[in-house]
Design brief:
single chain, 247 residues, alpha+beta, SMI1/KNR4-like, 5-stranded mixed β-sheet, globular
């Protein structure tokens, strides 16, 4: 029990939440519906083109088919999220930045494809996992290169994901949000749940911790503090800043 409490505290530290934010989140457990409403309100004011990139919600039947394909049940908050919006559209030649500080949320069909791609690497997991054997916090994420219980919900275009962990290690919780992928030697836990994660992103956007960079005709949403061109790197920086014992 103590180790799980410590891991939960470390997750909050990693996100760099203010004391006020912590109190609000502890006293009023945030919901996915609230998170999406806050995110869309921010988009309307600052980046309305993001609203057009959001797919309509999927169906319960499609969620059931996804769960059957991966052989696992999704947490309730993940199902609720996809019933509201089935990720972001692939606009083809028209670039639209990702909602999560430049990282797009995958539609279910693309999430399944990414999960299936990783299953092709299960056979080399034991061979290469020692190179990727770091968890932050310690003991929260299995020390693997890939695992069927890691469900990708985003894609950075380079083989890395933010997703949910359905098979945590001894100090983790089922449904925790983690970073994993071909470049992610350390598997960072960024939230206890998908609802917590989306609400944290909403907190940061509402607090003004963002910048919208212009690259040609494209607008790129990035986090402002810590400054980074990749949200995964920003999360790692926050961990190192707030907990010097982590890798």
């Amino acid at each position: 029990m103590q180790s799980n409490i410590a891991a939960s505290v470390a997750r909050r530290i990693a996100f760099g939440l203010t004391q006020c934010q912590k109190k609000v989140m502890e006293n009023n457990k945030p919901t996915v519906e609230e998170a999406w409403q806050r995110l869309k309100n921010w988009c309307k004011q600052y980046l309305p083109e993001l609203l057009d990139s959001l797919n309509p919600g999927t169906t319960a039947c499609e969620l059931d088919e996804f769960e059957a394909a991966i052989g696992q049940r999704l947490p309730i908050d993940v199902r609720e999220s996809y019933l509201i919006h089935n990720g972001q559209k692939d606009e083809g030649d028209l670039y639209v930045t990702g909602l999560l500080f430049g990282i797009p949320i995958l539609p279910l069909s693309e999430a399944l494809k990414e999960w299936q791609n990783w299953r092709e690497l299960d056979s080399i997991n034991d061979e290469v996992k020692e190179e990727f054997a770091f968890s932050a916090p310690d003991g929260a994420v299995r020390l693997d290169y890939t695992h069927p219980g890691w469900i990708p919900l985003t894609f950075d275009g380079g083989g890395n994901h933010i997703g949910i962990d359905l098979a945590p290690d001894r100090n983790g919780v089922v449904g925790q949000v983690i970073i994993f992928g071909c470049d992610e030697h350390t598997k960072y836990v960024v939230a206890d749940s998908w609802a917590d994660f989306l609400n944290h992103v909403a907190f940061e956007l509402e607090a003004g911790n963002f910048c919208i960079d212009q690259e040609g005709e494209d607008k790129i949403l990035n986090i402002k503090d810590p400054p980074s061109q990749h949200y995964h790197d920003a999360i790692a920086t926050i961990y190192r800043k707030n907990n010097h014992t982590l890798p």
